Every structure is written in structure tokens, then in C-alpha cells.
Amino acid sequence: MVLDAPGTLTPATTTDDAGAAAPAPVVVEAHDVRRAFDGRGVLHGIDLTVRRGEFVALLGRSGSGKSTLLRILAKLDTDAAGTVSVPALPAVAFQDSRLLPWARVLPNVLLGLRDAAARERARTLLDDVGLGDRARAWPRQLSGGEQQRVALARALAGAPELLLMDEPFGALDALTRIRMHRLLRDLVSRYSPAVVLVTHDVDEAVLLADRVLVLTDGRLSLDEPIDLPATGRRSHPGFTALRSRLLTELGVGDDDH
Ligand SMILES: Nc1ncnc2c1ncn2[C@@H]1O[C@H](COP(=O)(O)OP(=O)(O)OP(=O)(O)O)[C@@H](O)[C@H]1O
Ligand SMILES: [Mg+2]
Fold it and tell me: From its phi and psi, is residue 42 left (phi > 0), alpha (psi between -120 and 50) or beta?
């Protein structure tokens, strides 16, 4: 796995020797993924391809199977039918930071990585998330938002090709969430993993992603690119239009919101 130089944004297409745009390499390839629990079907045949540099948001009502699909992509659930091809070590981040309480911040970020390059990157990432001076703190000495920033640094420390996130900002207050959105966008553009972000927050999806999926009744009922500028999205007319469409797709009218 090769990390781009900081500041380099890897788009979902690359340019070949002849200068023509070629699709970026595939990072996630899932075909006909099905999952049932106790005979009750939750996923009924999911096909999904995610390419390098893509930021995909996965929306769906509560209980629609978002976390189930993410766990399958993370190889945390191996009982699903169908085929899933993902990089060997995808990084995963959850709603709670899941830091090890008995380890200080830096070892938490390193989490078993021992080489000097990883240590260097972990220190840089701690600086990136604004916690460079807290490397020796214990997780319990950090606020919820700080812990989540450490978790983000940890997720990226192994230079993953794929970053899978399940409502990573769900437990944060609105202000911290906005800061985390900026931070995540910045880190993703700098380290360029493919990202799959599970969220039930339509605004979060439209603000962050460049492609959005909606899971309905065990199938992807919507899969389309988000064609909005990288910054200033909230004030873009396309933001409101897409937001309304997604709310409708999720079965929630604008008026209910
Ligand atoms: N280990 C399990 N055993 C039995 N049923 C499960 C298991 N995991 C998930 N389910 C069921 O599968 C369905 C989908 O669950 P999942 O957690 O994927 O939903 P979700 O879309 O992530 O919902 P939320 O937005 O509330 O997090 C639910 O009905 C849930 O009860
Ligand atoms: Mg869930």
C-alpha cells in the first residue's frame, strides 16, 4: 500500500500514460451479498464496487442493515452469502472510540504497529487531529470528541486502503461533529483511503461523500455520485435538492424534519 504525499488528493479516476482518464483501482468488490439472522433476511443481494479515493456514504433507516453490511465488508461477519473482496486490513471506526483504557494515547494509535514508519505516522496523525501534546494521556483523561479524534488517528495509522466507519460521530455534540467533519475531509484528502461511512444523518452524507447509497429492504435502492463542490456545499442549491431527494428515498418528508 502506497501513501500519497500529504496534500495529494487521489480522485476516483487516474490518468494513464496516454493521458486518458482510467477508473481508479477497485478497493471493494461485493457481489450478491446476502445475510439472514435466524431465518430472517436482512440483506437480499448487495452488489457494490468502491474505487480508490472514493468517499461513499451509506444511508438507510434504523434496522435496514447498514451495520450488518459494514461488518461484512470489514470481515467481522463471515457468515454472509455472496462474495466480498476487500484489502487485507481495512480500518474500522465505530460510534464509540473503543480505545484500550489501559494504554496511553500513542500506543492506542499504534495498536500493535511496531515499525518506525508507523510510529512516525502515528505522531503525525496525532498532530493532524490536534492531539500531538496528548500522546501520553490515558483515554479516560480525554473528552468524548478527543477520544474519537484518537480513534480516527488510529484508523489511519496503518495507512489503510479502506476506511470503514459506522456512525463515528453519532455520539458527539453538534459543534464537535462539525469540526470532526472538517477533520475527516482533510485527513481523507491527505491520506486517500477509499471510505465507506455509515450514517443516518442525510446532511452528513451530502456534506462529506462523493457518492451516496441508500439501503432499503435489504437492497441498494439508490446509488449515485454527489456532484457538489468540495467546499461550501451547504450553501449550494444542489445541496438542498439532493437532501430532499434522499429524505424522500428514506421515507421522511422535508416537512417532518
Ligand atoms: N447478530 C444479530 N443477531 C440477530 N439479528 C441481528 C444481528 N445483527 C443485526 N441483526 C438484525 O438485523 C437488522 C439490521 O441490523 P443493523 O444493525 O445492520 O441495522 P442498522 O441499519 O445498522 O440500524 P441502526 O441505524 O439502528 O444502527 C436488525 O433487524 C437487527 O435486529
Ligand atoms: Mg447500525
Answer: alpha
Task: Judge residue 120's burial from the number of C-beta atoms within 10 Å of its C-beta, 0-12 exposed, 13-18 middle, 19 or more buried.
Answer: exposed
For residue 155, which phi and psi values (nearest 5 degrees)?
Answer: -60, -35
pLDDT at 209: 96
- Which residues are CB-contacts of 127 (< 8 A; sequence separation ≥ 6)? none
Which residue out of 42, 79, 92, 166 has the highest number of ligand 1 atoms within 8 Å of its CB and is therefore the one to mutate? 42
Amino acid residing at 170:
G
Backbone φ and ψ of 37, nearest 5°: -115, 125
Residues by chain with Cβ below 5 Å of ion ligand 2: 67
Residue 240 CB partners (closer than 8 Å, separation 6+): none
DSSP summary character for residue 111: T
Q: Give the pLDDT of residue 254.
A: 62
The DSSP output letter for 81 is: E
Phi, psi for residue 43 in degrees, rounded to 5 = -115, 130
pLDDT score of 253 more than 60: yes
Query: Which of 257, 237, 239, 235 has the alpha carbon at shortest distance from 248?
Result: 257
**Residue 67: pLDDT above 60?**
yes
